[in-house]
């Protein structure tokens, strides 16, 4: 028998045995494993789709990964020189004195995190600038050279003590990139030093370690420096539950390489409970916006064995773990995603005025989508220059925690009849679902209102099995499907319009292998109809949706108000009358010209507040005639594209700044509206003049206008002309820019006939 034939025969025999075992499952109680479960399983060249599915369903998390999943909602803290310089990335050459911290209240941080329901915090012990927040033996570029406590302060120590007091786990972010070590003349990063055998930690006279563990590594100067600092962090600040590495590199030098396998050996020995982010432990979700995938598989493919890899690329595709993706790899590996974003616009604190903060709706929506979508929610809260979380951030955290507790702290299946393994709130019990169409039926003690349903697979023991499922509710004597989704994994939260029911039925529609469920629960999120907003696109279609947050940093595209209010209906009027449940029902965008729209959201017979908007004449056929000047990416046609996020902006110091528009036909104008850009305070037109013309050559001054307080309140401003006039061409001339600016900017321009 040839080697190839022998391999094929062996493979056929193995699959045959598996099939026999699978067949016996119908007759043997709760048989769910037919091969060893592993954190990483190799694929063979002759694996079929069925064998890949079988292997994928036996890939399970490590203990550390499973604990990270159970943490669910965790905090990031970006703190350092950037907090005081108001920069996102420092240069590395900042004077440590810039870290002018006078007070620090890490107890306040931990209390706010505890109130939010967070279980762990990761702090930027060293960001890309190389400044360290602890009393390191191996550098003077850090808190030891700052004014804080006359150089005796230790931010990490204070946070560690607060974490211990409040029961919060501690993680550390240690940036592999280090601009101080790059820019400093004596810096170690990329200095082309030789790789030699060295002892970690390197002894420093007068500062011995209590932990006597030592390591021998063959490393260069920078890897030795990095390992020495990692040793400090992992031995002197209590248990470390996560080590966070990212791939950001503001600058490189000397072809510096990282010896992650050495780092891992040290972490494994000194912090055995720590999960490592950015390597084979946990992975980046692929964005910093809080966006989530509809299907987030935690079993992902690798071309090389992740257990021996040194470099890990970010996984950013929309599809990360489908069967097609798995088949293209050579190793299947369990690796949960962390959905990371910031509560503020940016990672570091800048101010409490211009730096916007996410709403509670937004944070709670991300929580439900991320934790309820088989990932971990990592939310950054940057401390301010007083060493505290700002009041607005604290309030959002508190309100988010209240919502989580009120919604998920009450299980509406308490006392329900059904499989006890799913209702006993014990992660050590599970239910193996047999049959061609597996399902679970639950009978509630009484008719109950629900709009959330939570499901968990027993991923710790059996991996991820379910690839599609649906939930039915018993309504008016029949089953009605209320939600459908794809995979489940560690946790899936189904959100749907409120129903009142006495029975629920979970149907498993597609599987990779025999499904094993660990827990189900039902919940109710108490909400009220949201505020509404109107938008009109470039072809004149109007949409009415829950009001979006004006949080402009890394928008995730999700409408939190819509997500949290499944089952809401929107009614509107076009004649200025107050809308009611008898008014027109908004179903899809509709064409609308000039006039006033009013709308109201109604949910479960409860009415929200009435929203209204006044639209100017349609801009579909408008044409740009000319403009004084325009900056790149800010052309004048953007001032009538019906998108207030885009804007025209003239060149700097240009004289006689103006735009001329052709309205295509003569119309009678009574007023106009100016919308300034809200992403920049530069260019807001404080004073100006409006001209009219019927031929585009001969101009008549119609009126001047003055808009005040634009910089502090960059909202749309209306101006009613002293008298109406008929015109085809309009010219707006900027006469004075707010804040003594030297360029003009317009996000949208509207004209009204009424």
Automatic annotation (TrEMBL):
One of its GO terms (cellular component) is lysosome. SUPFAM superfamilies: (Trans)glycosidases (SSF51445), Galactose-binding domain-like (SSF49785). Residues 1-29 form the signal peptide. Residues 610-754 form the F5/8 type C domain. SMART domains: Alpha_L_fucos (SM00812). GO terms for biological process: fucose metabolic process; glycoside catabolic process. InterPro entries: FA58C, Galactose-bd-like_sf, GH, GH29D-like_dom, Glyco_hydro_29, Glyco_hydro_29_N. GO terms for molecular function: alpha-L-fucosidase activity. Its EC number is 3.2.1.51. PROSITE patterns: FA58C_3 (PS50022), PROKAR_LIPOPROTEIN (PS51257). Belongs to the glycosyl hydrolase 29 family. This is alpha-L-fucosidase.
């Amino acid at each position: 028998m040839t080697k190839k034939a022998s391999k094929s025969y062996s493979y056929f025999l193995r699959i045959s045995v598996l099939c026999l075992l699978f067949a016996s499952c119908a007759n043997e109680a709760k048989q769910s494993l037919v091969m060893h479960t592993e954190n990483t399983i190799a694929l063979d060249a002759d694996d079929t789709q069925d064998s890949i599915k079988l292997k994928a369903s036996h890939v399970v998390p490590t203990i550390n990964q499973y604990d990270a999943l159970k943490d669910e909602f965790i905090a990031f803290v970006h703190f350092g020189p950037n907090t005081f310089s108001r920069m996102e990335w420092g240069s590395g050459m900042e004077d440590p004195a810039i870290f002018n911290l006078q007070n620090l209240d890490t107890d306040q941080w931990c209390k706010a995190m505890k109130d939010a329901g967070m279980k762990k915090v990761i702090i930027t012990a060293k960001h890309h600038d190389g400044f360290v927040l602890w009393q390191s033996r191996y550098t003077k570029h850090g808190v030891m050279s700052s004014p804080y406590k006359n150089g005796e302060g230790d931010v990490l120590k204070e946070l560690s003590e607060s974490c211990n007091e409040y029961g919060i786990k501690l993680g550390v972010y240690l940036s592999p990139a280090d601009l101080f070590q790059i820019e400093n003349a004596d810096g170690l990063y990329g200095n082309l030093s030789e790789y030699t055998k060295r002892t970690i930690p390197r002894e420093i006279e007068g500062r011995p370690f209590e932990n006597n563990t030592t390591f021998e590594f063959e490393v260069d100067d920078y890897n030795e420096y990095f390992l020495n600092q990692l040793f400090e962090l992992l031995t002197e600040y209590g248990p470390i539950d996560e080590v966070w590495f990212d791939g950001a590199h503001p600058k490189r030098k000397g072809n510096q390489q990282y010896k992650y396998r050495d780092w891992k050996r040290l972490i494994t020995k000194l912090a055995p409970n720590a999960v490592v982010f950015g390597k084979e432990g946990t992975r980046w979700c692929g964005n910093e916006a809080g966006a989530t995938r509809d299907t987030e598989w935690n079993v992902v493919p690798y071309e090389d064995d992740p257990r021996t890899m040194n470099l890990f690329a970010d996984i950013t595709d929309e599809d990360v773990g489908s069967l097609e993706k798995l088949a293209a790899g050579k190793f299947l590996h369990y690796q949960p995603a962390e959905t990371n974003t910031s509560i503020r616009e940016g990672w570091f604190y800048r101010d409490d005025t211009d730096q916007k903060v996410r709403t509670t709706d937004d944070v709670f929506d991300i929580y439900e989508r991320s934790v309820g979508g088989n990932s971990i929610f990592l939310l950054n809260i940057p401390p301010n220059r007083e060493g505290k979380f700002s009041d607005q951030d604290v309030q959002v955290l508190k309100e988010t925690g209240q919502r989580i507790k009120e919604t998920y702290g009450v299980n509406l299946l308490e006392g329900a009849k059904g499989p006890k393994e799913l209702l006993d709130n014990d992660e050590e019990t599970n239910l193996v679902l047999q049959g061609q169409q597996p399902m679970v039926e639950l009978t509630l003690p009484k008719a109950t209102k629900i709009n959330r349903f939570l499901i968990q697979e027993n991923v710790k023991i059996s991996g991820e099995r379910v690839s599609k499922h649906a939930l039915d509710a018993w309504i008016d004597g029949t089953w009605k499907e209320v939600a459908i989704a794809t995979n489940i994994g560690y946790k899936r939260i189904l959100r749907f319009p409120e129903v009142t029911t006495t029975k629920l039925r979970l149907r498993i529609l597609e599987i990779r292998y025999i499904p094993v469920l660990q827990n189900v629960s039902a919940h109710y999120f108490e909400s009220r109809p949201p505020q509404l907003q109107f938008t009109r696109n470039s072809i004149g279609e109007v949409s009415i949706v829950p009001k979006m947050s004006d949080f402009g940093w890394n928008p995730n595209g999700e409408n939190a108000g819509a997500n949290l209010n499944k089952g809401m209906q929107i009614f509107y009027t076009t004649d200025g009358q107050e809308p009611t449940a008898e008014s027109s029902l908004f179903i899809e965008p509709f064409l609308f010209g000039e006039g006033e729209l009013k709308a109201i959201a109604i949910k479960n017979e409860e009415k929200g507040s009435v929203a209204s908007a006044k639209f100017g004449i349609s801009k579909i056929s408008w044409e740009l005639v000319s403009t004084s000047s325009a900056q790149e990416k800010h052309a004048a046609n953007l001032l009538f594209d019906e998108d207030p996020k885009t804007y025209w902006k003239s060149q700097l110091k240009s004289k006689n700044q103006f735009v001329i528009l052709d309205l295509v036909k003569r119309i009678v104008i009574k007023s106009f509206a100016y919308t300034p850009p809200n992403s920049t305070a530069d260019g807001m037109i404080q004073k100006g003049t409006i001209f009219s013309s019927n031929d585009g050559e001969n101009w008549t001054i119609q009126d001047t206008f003055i808009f005040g307080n634009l910089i502090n309140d960059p909202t749309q401003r209306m101006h009613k002309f002293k008298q109406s006039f008929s015109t085809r061409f309009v010219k707006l001339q900027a006469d004075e820019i707010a804040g003594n600016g030297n360029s003009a900017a317009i996000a949208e321009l509207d004209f009204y006939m009424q």
